[in-house]
Amino acid sequence: MTLLTRSRPLIRTLTNYRSITTVPFLSQEPQLAGIPPEVNTTPLPPNPSSGSPLYNENWRSPFASTAPSSSSVVPLPFLRQSPAARFQAISQTLDVQGLMNLFADWVTTQRWEDMKQLFELWIRSLDRNGKPNKPDANLFNHYLRANLMMGATADDLLGLASQMEEYGLVANTASHNLILKAMYQSGEPLSWVDKAVKLLERMIQTGKEYKEALPDDESYDLVIGLLFKADLIDDALKYVDSALKSGYKLSMNVFNECVRSCVFNNRLDILVSIIEKCKKTDQNKGLLPPWNMCTHLADVALQADNSELAFSSLEFFVKWVVRGESVRPPVSLSVDEGLLVAALGTAGRTYNAKLLNGAWEVLKRSLRQMRAPNPESFLAKIYAHASLGQLQNAFATLHEFEKAYGSSKQESAELFSPFTTLNPLAVACCRNGFVTLDSVYYQLENLSRADPPYKSVAALNCVILGCANIWDIDRAYQTFAAIESSFGLVPDIHSYNALIYAFAKLGKRDEATKVYEHFMDLGVKPNEMTYSLLVDAHLIKREPKAAISVVDQMVHAQYKPSKEMLKKIRRRCTREMDYESDDRVEDLAKKFNIRLGTENRRNMLFDLQYSTEYAG
């Protein structure tokens, strides 16, 4: 009805001149078929009071007369025509703009076959001036789209597009995009990828003179998508880079495919470059992969120690979190804490302060102050700061760590050991020798006088162990004594272990033993590290029997000797040819089901003895 209603005023305008068509209703007023027009004037209707049967009929009656009337809105001969004849009639009455408006309506109802048929009839008809109809590029694009939607191949569209030259038309961007879309939708991307690339290059060259033929965002998306489908990763990334440099906007699908392909094909550095270029342009900085893809991207980046890509994945997480908070009702998104701990570790290994700060901020935002971070998170942050040489930040993190988990003595004994969890901080304290150690000590001393004061045995233990690492027993002993005298604190087992280590490293086994006896008299309970340090002190003095005695005390204290400890004692027994101690080590290994090796102990001892005698 829309078409017919629009055609009514157009038909009426044609009554002022003689039409070249032979169809009566195109050049005459509508009349009943087969009855010649009357010459006389039409009579007035009958008087209603005359009792005419015409006025006795009820207009609401379903059996009212349905005889055709000469006052019909649409001419009846037009309605009674076949669709082909109707299209023939329309093609002879509409101009370019009228046909464009009609096609715009038909696009919404997807009347592709009617569009194709009407255009082909219209193109062979004459306009009002008696000249052949000539389309413009936009109208011809409707024809191309209709063919595409009806399943035409890219070759078909290329052939149709070549006919535009016959009408003096130049294919514009939309024309080429329809051809590229046909190539993209084909089931054989490899067979079309070369033609698609050549078509895009031709668009770029033609666009230098004819701006309407320049490629747009969709052009690059179709070509890049086709290259990705053909698994031509390098070529696709080249055109992605070209599109970004030219200021085009990537679609979300193309960006996600770019991320997926780069991750799968290990093009991480190129992906970092693409993401950075996207962030610098307003039209592309909003690109955001799905949440699961962000997680996978972060995993791959952290496994490869690619700090820049890891930081970009954290930025994607932040965008998702902000987007979740802005919707109603809010959606609380949280990043896995283990993933962020790995990010902190990567920041420490790659010395990337930006990744360190970013990972910690994402962690705090994910926790939403509902609980404290896990101990592993604090330790990873301490490690990262220590690796970067940011000792002040490292000790500040240690202070937060102690406030969160330092209340329990049992947890403190396990979490604040300078030999294990805090060892990176102890190593960082002696990085520049005594200069760094003295600087850290004076800072801790000043903090102890601050308001509020900060005093930490764990921090001082790191300094003691740092002094031991540079073989400085004097500074180690002075720092140990300052725990009570200057800071008013009580040394813990880690303090004594650090002092034992300092003496043992210089071969002062007797002094190390006296430290052990001293804190035992004070009621301080040794831990597994204590016995391990004493074993090393005896082995340095080449006394495996004394080491075995320490192991016996360790077992009595319900600790299990490690495989490494027994192997060290066994090697010393072999060198000293102490068969009795060696048998004792073997018994301990069997008791705790420890496999020390498959070599024959007796043969090893015999070979060593024979080689010694032969050398003598």
Low-confidence stretches: 1-35, 50-74, 76-80, 605-616
Looking at the structure, what is the overall shape? elongated
Q: How many beta-strand elements? A: 0
Please tell me how large the radius of gyration is.
45 Å
The helix/strand class is: mainly alpha
Helical region count? 31
- Main beta sheet, described? none
Oligomeric state of the chains in view: single chain
Task: Name the features.
mainly alpha; elongated; disordered C terminus; 616 residues
Description of the molecule:
The protein is mostly helical and 616 residues long. The protein contains 31 helices and no strands. The protein has helices spanning 2-12, 76-79, 83-91, 96-109, 112-123, 137-149, 154-162, 173-185, 189-206, 217-229, 233-245, 252-264, 268-279, 291-303, 307-326, 337-350, 353-367, 375-387, 391-405, 409-415, 423-429, 434-448, 457-469, 473-485, 493-505, 509-521, 528-540, 544-556, 563-576, 579-591, 601-615. The protein is elongated and about 135 Å long.
Quick structural gist:
This protein has 616 residues and is mostly helical.
List the helices and strands and how they pair.
Layout (H helix, E strand, L loop, with lengths): L1 H11 L63 H4 L3 H9 L4 H14 L2 H12 L13 H13 L4 H9 L10 H13 L3 H18 L10 H13 L3 H13 L6 H13 L3 H12 L11 H13 L3 H20 L10 H14 L2 H15 L7 H13 L3 H15 L3 H7 L7 H7 L4 H15 L8 H13 L3 H13 L7 H13 L3 H13 L6 H13 L3 H13 L6 H14 L2 H13 L9 H15 L1
Helix pairs in contact: 3-5, 4-5, 5-6, 6-7, 6-8, 7-8, 8-9, 8-10, 9-10, 10-11, 10-12, 11-13, 14-15, 15-17, 16-17, 16-18, 18-19, 18-21, 21-23, 22-23, 23-24, 23-25, 24-25, 25-26, 25-27, 26-27, 27-28, 29-30
